[in-house]
Amino acid sequence: MKLSRILPLVVGGAVAGIVISSASPAQALTYNWNYTGLSNTSGTFDQTGGTITSFTGTVGGTAITGLLPIGTIIGGAGVDNLFPLTGRGVGFSTASDTFAIYFSGGLTSIWQEGLEDIIGTGVFNATPVPFDIPGGATIPTVGSLFALGLMRKAKKRLAAKTLVVNPVETV
């Protein structure tokens, strides 16, 4: 079989291999959040598949140190760390206390475990953070454009070699 017939298959297969191998698994969505029921309470969180995987920021001006495990009991209920927030809420900690933000009836409340009481009732707002396309995603794109250019150049070269011209007859 001639190289000219299999070249597009080879190049196409290489490009497809590069694209598939550079595909990344699902990435977390990042949100900026704030809470209107308690001053200086805001931050960011990451979500993968509906579950909050990290939760940072401040609560009442105190730094949040981490997300509590699913099922941690705060205020008599186990948190589920799901977003959008559910009645079971998201649990997090500071250096000295544990908290949960619960959603109920259109409002959210923050429960502080040490006080055994609600310390704020307000609205929890979360806005997705736009994400950049990672630099690695451009490599397959540029590579495929380069491969297409090479294929076009090879086609032109092959056409020039196989071009049949009317022969000049000498008398």
Provide tags for this entry:
171 residues; alpha+beta; five-stranded antiparallel beta sheet; rod-shaped; 12 strands
The arrangement of helices and strands along the chain is HEEEEEEEEEEEEH
Q: Overall 3D geometry?
A: rod-shaped
Structural class: alpha+beta
Q: Approximately what portion of the residues adopt beta-strand conformation?
A: 25-35%
Q: Mean pLDDT, as a whole number? A: 80
The side-by-side strand order for the widest beta sheet comes to 4-3-2-1-12
Task: Report the sheet with the most strands, covering strand number, pairing sense and barrel closure.
Answer: 5 strands, antiparallel
Enumerate the spans where pLDDT stays under 50 for 5 or more consecutive residues. none
Number of helices: 2
Q: In percent, how helical is the residue content? A: 25-40%
Question: Would you kindly provide a written description of the structure presented here, covering whatever features stand out?
Answer:
With 171 residues, this protein is of the alpha+beta class. The protein is built from 2 helices and 12 strands, in the order H-E-E-E-E-E-E-E-E-E-E-E-E-H. The strands form 3 sheets. The protein has a 5-stranded antiparallel β-sheet, with no helix packed on it. It has a 5-stranded antiparallel β-sheet with strand order 5-8-9-10-11, with no helix packed on it. A two-stranded antiparallel ribbon has the order 6-7. A hairpin with a 6-residue loop joins strand 1 (29-35) and strand 2. Helix 1 packs antiparallel against helix 2 (138-162). The longest helix is centred in the C-terminal third of the chain and has 25 residues, at 138-162. The protein is rod-shaped. 18% of the residues are buried. The model has no long low-confidence stretch (mean pLDDT 80).
